[in-house]
Design a protein that fits this description.
The chain is built from 12 helices and 5 strands. It is mainly alpha-helical. The chain has one domain: Up-down Bundle (Rhopdopsin 7-helix transmembrane proteins). Strands 4-3-5 form a 3-stranded antiparallel β-sheet, with no helix packed on it. Strands 1-2 form a two-stranded antiparallel ribbon. A hairpin with a 2-residue loop joins strand 3 (319-328) and strand 4 (331-336). Helix 1 (8-36) packs parallel to helix 11.
Length: 374
Amino acid sequence: MAIFMDDAPHVFGTVITIAVLAYVTFGLRVYTRITRGSWGMEDWLMTVAAFPLLILTIACATAAFNGVGIHQWRLELEQNVKYQTNGLFWFFLFEVFYCVTIIPVKLSISFMLVRIAENRSWFVWCQYGIMALFTTMNAIAAFYIIFQCAPVSAAWTNVGTCNASYILADIYYATTAVNIFTDWATALMPIPLLWNVKMNTNAKVSVGAILGLGIFASISACIRLKYTVNLTSATEYLYGLANIVIWGYAENGIGMFVGNLSTLRPLFRRVLGLGGSSGQTAPSGMTPNGLPSKATHPYRSFDPGFEMGTMHSIKEKPSMATSTQIVGNDRSSLSSDGESQKHIMEGGSGAGGAGSFGAGGIVVSRQIDISHHQ
């Protein structure tokens, strides 16, 4: 049996919707990272977060059928009295796993930014400070929630002793304030990070917007802060918890969703043709290479980081051979462009590694021979 009315359907519907978004994008994240060979610390952390989020999802969805979001007068009916205890138990699990889940979710997002900005020490140290702040605060909150009552089960059975409810409310306020501050700090940091990156404006905007999506998780925290006062309510306690559960789960679920979404740009680019970084435009009817746009493209697409160019066949059907020599750091590569894929090797660490081109310099020379057959 279950009790499912009042605000309980809102709790269940919100939790399931956000959970689907979070776990679908997590699966796409795993696929994208593995196929591109770019699995990193942030991916391990998000994988760790997927397990407590699953428990949090079960706790919130089950709470919707066990008294959370139900008006007090319904719970006082003889057949519904048990749901008062059941609802408190599932809310207790929500409180604990809210704190346990949000730590690896936020760490994953922070480590992704650290990975991008590994050469900017000021940015990296700021992120480490932010990570230490929210990890410490959420860990303190989790331990307090678990041990605020003696025995622990008194938190839902009311058999034992517990600290005053206003202390828990204060812990909530402090934790939420820290999470909001760190969310906004993390969301705004990509702006200076991308300022001098060599990509066109559209690409910068798209990357910055994706990295800054954590603001939406912060909005959930701001809204939840409004309902924290319900923790001290003597009446309609379980009914008032519905909004805390909804927005608390949204903060974690949306955090995972946007953290996953920020890694899917290569997948979007491949499937939808979005997110190119070149700012070059071509005249009407012409390709960026200056050849007619109706020319066919008989080559197989590779990752943009490795593509060298396109072989075109024109109506006159001339034979065209192209060779490209790439020289950098005393190393060179010479091969036909028909191979489509080139590998530029990093220079060695020897004394002459920089060559005459400067550190990291690359010089490309191209020779094209065209012969017409009568």
